[in-house]
Amino acid sequence: MEEKSMVYGGSSLGLLFIPERRAVELKNCYKALGEARTWEEFRRMVSKAIYEFYLPESIHYHSSGESSVEDLTPFYIPDETPFTPKDIFADDHLPGHPEIEMADWMPEDIQNKFGRRVKYNAMDMNVPSGDVLELDESRMEEIVEALESFGFDCRRDDELIIAATIIDFDPEDYDYSEE
Fold it and tell me: pTM for this one?
């Protein structure tokens, strides 16, 4: 793992540690889903990776038909096209799952000492199959010290953790986009 700047805090998913850039990326995504009114606004509010994650989901997307296109820029939706989260959004198709991602990057020594891996299937909690790392919240300070001994810089930011893990709007409040 490249990034060593971590934010951590409590969430509905338990104690989470998320690379800071990833947390900001997810926070911006969830904010954009609720606030953007055009595809240009959405594109400007999110990372290129998030934009291209959702792009193929849109009714406005027209691809070349090749599934392995590397540069999606020619297929970007015209900026003035109205945007609504219902055009692309599904509860079970999120751009990130920090609770699964944490199990991938956190050193195994720390996982074994302070947590346990739980297998989730796609039918459980609408997340893709994978291992979720559940950390012992009562040992938060020890986990921080352990991560810092591995060279991570940890900063508590409950607000950012919540913003990176909770979608704060109801997609049902939006009309479908018209073509």
Answer: 0.85
